[in-house]
Amino acid sequence: MNPYNWRQDYGNSNWDIRHRFVSHYLYELPFFRGSKGILHTALADWRLSGLTTLQSGLPFNVTISTDTANTNSRGLYRPNLVGTPSANCGPGPFIRCTRSRAPALMHPV
User: Fold this and answer.
1) CB under 8 Å, gap of 24 or more: what pairs does 57-63 form?
2) What pLDDT score was predicted for residue 24?
3) Distance of alpha carbon 71 from alpha carbon 106, whole angstroms
């Protein structure tokens, strides 16, 4: 975040979930319904239930927690993007898709 220009920090919120499907289900087990006595008391009228949630991922921010830009402000900083991001990252981790570096240090006064 640029503490001097908050408009540069505009984007999706951390809790922005674009696609979400929630389902609840209940199934009554048909076993031992016709039985009597202790067998009916112990094993009849059981139910299975569940809750399923399918959703897209949450957005995330890549941040640096130290004041490497020497601006004497609080909060998190974002690294500077160096080069052009690529959609073809190849096998392995996605760390090779972009190159970045920490914000530049200011000269001491």
Assistant:
1) 58/14, 58/15, 58/16, 58/17, 59/11, 59/12, 59/13, 59/14, 59/16, 60/14, 61/14, 62/100
2) 96
3) 8
The rounded distance, in Å, linking the Cα atoms of 25 and 8 is 45
Tokens of 33: 């319904």
Backbone angles phi, psi at 46, to 5 degrees: -85, 150
Which residue in the block uniquely carries the two structure tokens 């919120």?
A: 13
| Cα(20)–Cα(51) distance, integer angstroms | 13
Dihedral sign (CA 88, 65, 2, 101): negative
Alpha-carbon distance of 59 to 12, in angstroms, equals 7
Report, as an integer, the average pLDDT of 39-68: 84
pLDDT digits 0-9 by tens, 59-80:
777 777 777 667 776 777 777 7
The closest of 63, 67, 25, 62 to 47, measured between CA atoms, is 25
